[in-house]
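Appendix B. Extra example for self-study. Work through it before the problem class; the solution is given directly after the inputs so you can check yourself.
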Amino acid sequence: MSMSGPIDPLLRAVPVVHRDVDVGALYIEHRARLLGVAAAITLDRAVAEEIVQDAFAGLQRHASRIDNPVGYLQRSVVNLSLNLIRRRRVAASHPTVPPLPASTAEVDETWASVVGLPANQRAVVVLRFWQDMTIDAIADTLGWPSGSVKSTLHRALRQLKEALR
Amino acid sequence: MIDEAFDTELEARLRATLAEMIPKLVASSTVEGRALATAVDVVVTSRRATPVRRPRRAIAALLAVAATLIGLIVIADRYNDRTTPSAPTTDNTTPAWYGTIAPLLPERFPYVALTFATDVQLWFVAIGPTDGKALEIQLASGGYSAGPTTSVDATGEWSATAHGWTVRTPQGLFVSVSCDIGVGGRDYVGSPNYCDMTSGVLPYTMTEIRAVANRLATSLTLSIFDQKLGKPQGDTIDEAEATARIQEAVPGQLITATDLGDGADRIYNAGVGNVPPASSDTLAPLDAIPPKADTSVRILHGVYPTSVVTEEPSAEGYDDAGVVWMFGAGGVFVRISTTDPSPESVTRLEQLARDLMKLDPVASKPATTPTIYTAGATTTTTIEFPAVLGADSTSTSSTTTTTTVPACGRTTAPPTVLVVNASHVVGTAMWWRDALAASVPGVDFAEPVNALVKESSSRVLALSGYECEASLVAGFTAVAVAAVEPATIENLQALVAEPLPVGTSIIVLVGNDNMSRITVGATTTTLG
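Solution. Structure tokens for the complete assembly:
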């Protein structure tokens, strides 16, 4: 995979940007995880890369006023991913999810069901079961009320159960 | 509760599946990246159905070349001194950083703010006063990696970014230059390049951006970081107050504020995105939430020169986006970008710009002196342009105009006005290059210069006779010029039909039917 260009090359260029935030260290530590979150929501590896770069670029630029850099990154990645999904939906154009080899038929079937979830439900599922985040943490990340997170998760699980039954 | 009701087997199955498949997805091919980029573009296209306000239907297309010239200038009346700032004046308190960076920047972007400064980095924003575009300039020291190298030349290793270029010199100076109008979330690779759009506004191309980066990389050295060039100017607008104003203007949008340089560069991003209906425990399906605009508000402090003040905001439409901007006293600059360029939206954001400016105790002060244009050490001269035109009675209401133009040269001849109807030359960006190349034997125009806006009533206007760097007229607005019929592409070609010496500058302006609003844009192309 290759990107057509970096979002903010200085992000990679300068490990330490602001007085208290080591963006380089955060990048090394969290990039892969954030990339996974973005990819799981957008189902698009390349765009996920861009989104993660965007998030780090935002952190790089505004680190001095960000109290919780990791939270900022997580929030940025999830929201940027969902924003892009929204636009894609408006366009009525969905990217084809690349076929991925699964170790078992069960994993393959489950993954297909996850991919088939609406993006917001998939986001909640990923944050809950891949990131092991609590409902409140998910709510904070998404900027939603906790109740909305719960109901979204509930609908997602119901749909998954029906699909996997 | 959800967790209580959840089937543990399904949970385990989900965890195992996600743990296995997400890394595989991350490691997958990038082919799908193009799919989403296309999808986003499709969204962009679909939104074009939204009425796009083009406060400046006119587009200025200009080719400026180097030294001496046959200046082809059109100027009539200033449309509105309040809304269109002229080019900057300088004073005795010029910051060191401005004196270092400004001479290296295109004159199309004369207003500059230092937004971030450390021992190894300097970030600037250079503002174009006529269309809301800005150059984001970042200088850094060290052995940086800019991602995939696009090319290598004598200047250094080049990489294309989303809307610009980076170059790393062999000496270790890293230069990044990009151009945008500030639309949030649209600066990733594959997103619309508003600066390069040829519709409605004067484009600023990737090639031009690269030229800026090249100029910086070849003119500056790492010693710039050893110089005491100054610090960004902190903000004077209360963040909470600003947020409240923005929230009033874009109700329902989630606002995130970030800043740089102790507030010199503050950005408020507002958007609906995935935000569910408030106070609802039942999240509506994403598809049920109507798409709404994303809005990005940027407030810069310390913009220099500080002479520019606009009492009313300017606005420009960019297909599926719009931008509103305003200069306040004391170097305050407000730019609001939106993905909803409808007239209603732009009107609302214009009011927001006024409201935000009022929050600044300095910016809200009225200008004490009119802004005038000077170029470096030159002085200004007021020249009265006699109207020469008259074929179109609807557009000759003003017969004599007075404007202040830079005294950047001497008058070589009485002004000659050439007017052609541009309705037949729409979409002819390449034409300029070809025509000019044919007109200037031996000179290679490296890129299309500018496209003309597709306005059936547009006219291309030119007035020659003044030696002047063409780009110096940026910021002027011309009105009330008549048409000459028949006027076709041949007439336009006639503007450059005669062999032009190297260093010829040409200014071409396109106005709407009644010439009520014409933007004079400028760019600089140097002949090789």
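Self-check: Chain B touches chain A through 89 residues (CB under 8 Å). If your reasoning did not lead you there, revisit section 3.
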